[in-house]
Amino acid sequence: MPRAFTPKVVTANALIEGDVIYLTADNCWTRELAQAELLTDEAHAQLRLLEAEQQPDVIVGAYLADAKASDQGPAPTHFREDFRRTGPSNYFHGKQAVGQ
Amino acid sequence: MYHYNDFDKAFLAERNRQFRAQVERRVAGNLTEDEFKPLRLMNGLYLQLHAYMLRVAIPYGTLSSAQMDTLALLADKWDKGYGHFTTRQNIQYNWPKLTDVPDMLDALAEVGMHAIQTSGNTIRNVTADHFAGAAADEVEDPRPVAELIRQWSTDHPEFQFMGRKFKIAVSAGAQDRAVLKAHDLAVRIVKNDAGETGYQILVGGGLGRTPMIGKILHDFLPREDLLPFIEATVSVWNQIGRRDNKYKARIKITVHEHGLDDIRARVDERFAQIRPTFSGVDQALFEDIKAHFAAPAFRNAPTVEFDSAYDTNPMFRSWADTNLAAHRVDGYAIVTVSLKKHGETPGDATSAQMRTLAEIARTYGHDELRISHEQNVILPHVHKSDLPAIYAALREADLHTANIGLISDIIACPGMDYCALATARSIPVAQKIAERFEELKLEHDIGHLQVKISGCINACGHHHVGHIGILGLDRAGVENYQITLGGDATWDAAIGERAGPGFAYDEIVPAIERLVNGYLELRDGPEETFLAAYKRLGLAAFKPFLYPEAQANAA
């Protein structure tokens, strides 16, 4: 039996800065996972990934990353995505330093 | 050291011009990422977890002060004020913007540096003994050979699109400080019974998911046969190496599958074909390169300043005992500057620290610096009378940590804090181990002990050849750390044995502490190192310290 679909977000890196970005419901790219569109339907998720891949002049390496719903919006389910949305643990650099 | 001639400068300028145009075409949408990726990789530009990463080659680890100053400039102007020195004698910048990289490459070209072939399926940056030209135990300075190989391999038309990457190291010491046996191909400069200098060639070493120790392909090559022989070897592998599976593509697998004798026969055949095409130009070039590496004018002076500081300043004495190595010239020493301050990221230096190192080298060190595969910085030629002043300058820059070869002198890859391939973090594990043993004030008692940490199976952190190796994995969505023991990165190279089940992130430092305490209990006195004790007693003696519960359950 195929595995049940788990919720996803479309994520990629920004072409110029390389920063981690996420696709929002209104078709923009956001730097914050919590503002991403949480995709709960597999067919819709595939479609959104295709739409993201149509923007090679903005992004690099789009893929579907596992996420779960939370009060603040989509949240990571795996530590890799947690690091991607935060930044490195040895310096206060990257996303964690933005907006401080 | 080698200075670029007009040909080199023109080549690099043209190459940088090409890459600038490639970046422009990518940004304008005229190149897809699939088309652009091999081009950026060929120029050292990766895309990692949080940003791009530019890997700059430091050929055979040698830098001038002006070059170090430029590395600092790049860190300040286009990055976040620091750089990360790697196990392959490169420096990595973790935060450049794609559109800034052409300017960074132009700035590097001003001081004869580049990022060519620091990635991609090509012959990578040639590495060498970081004590080259200074060590007391070497046949000759190995860097002219390394530079010859660098020039030959740079943009070599046959070797730009191989099945996988190819790493070459060169050393001439009785001791191996370049991990020769973990390279695709290694050149060991030796003397034969007749007193002639030549080359022993090793092949098929490598770490990664299938670690292999290099084997002797040729025992003694005459000088003039070196390049055609290396070219024949790479050529044979480029033809018969597997391209169906990237995990089986490295030459170590080709040697393993075909057998050393078969590979040797193929190399000999190819060598016979191409040897006549080497007209001797390479030997003329080699003579020219050698002149660039003439030894500095060493001075003959008393060392009273050193002796008096050594006798009166215990901090200086501790640093001198740990961080100095014997120089081939009387009155001189080789200084290893630790980039492993307890709690800091192994291999990282701030731009201010880089400038301090450049200034020290300019004032006291014949304008020379080296980067070691152990991620430290070397001042290869220092007169002992200057050591107290150097130590004071290092202290000012927080570069005076006295821990070379000790448990906190850890090799660690960037791991999941930066690397897109990583399966777990390495840097925080290294930081915590170093901090813990600093708290315990034990590391000088423990003595020589190499801990090497990789954040994935690709083994950039050399964990297989660490006396204690740590491999970070993703086990069911959680970071998990496997320990290997008894690895050895010297001429007696050995792959460490897996100790048993892995440890969670919060269990790995206590596990290492139990293991090291166990060693202190087991050793035959302070002169028996961890590795020697391990070789004498084996895994079984150390396992109970790592897994006390299993021991209790079995009892």
UniProtKB/TrEMBL annotation, chain A:
Segments for region (Disordered):
69-100
Domain of life (superkingdom): Bacteria
UniProt-listed InterPro entries: DUF2849
Pfam families listed in its UniProt record: DUF2849
Q: Indicate what this protein is called per its UniProt record.
A: Sulfite reductase (NADPH) hemoprotein beta-component
UniProtKB/TrEMBL annotation, chain B:
Which InterPro entries does this chain map to?
NIR_SIR_4Fe-4S, NiRdtase/SiRdtase_haem-b_fer, Nit/Sulf_reduc_fer-like_dom_sf, NO2/SO3_Rdtase_4Fe4S_dom, NO2/SO3_Rdtase_4Fe4S_sf
Keywords (A to Z) from UniProt: 4Fe-4S, Heme, Iron, Iron-sulfur, Metal-binding, Oxidoreductase
Nitrite/sulphite reductase 4Fe-4S domain sequence ranges: 119-273, 409-521
Q: Does the keyword 4Fe-4S apply?
A: yes
Signal peptide from the UniProt entry: none
SUPFAM superfamilies from the UniProt entry: Nitrite and sulphite reductase 4Fe-4S domain-like, Nitrite/Sulfite reductase N-terminal domain-like
An annotated Gene Ontology molecular function: metal ion binding
What Pfam family does this protein match (any one)? NIR_SIR
Which domain of life does the UniProt lineage start with? Bacteria
Claim: Oxidoreductase is one of the keywords in the record: yes
Q: Which residues form the Nitrite/Sulfite reductase ferredoxin-like domain?
A: 52-111, 347-397
Q: What is this protein called?
A: Sulfite reductase (NADPH) hemoprotein beta-component
Which organism's genome codes for this protein?
A: Shimia haliotis
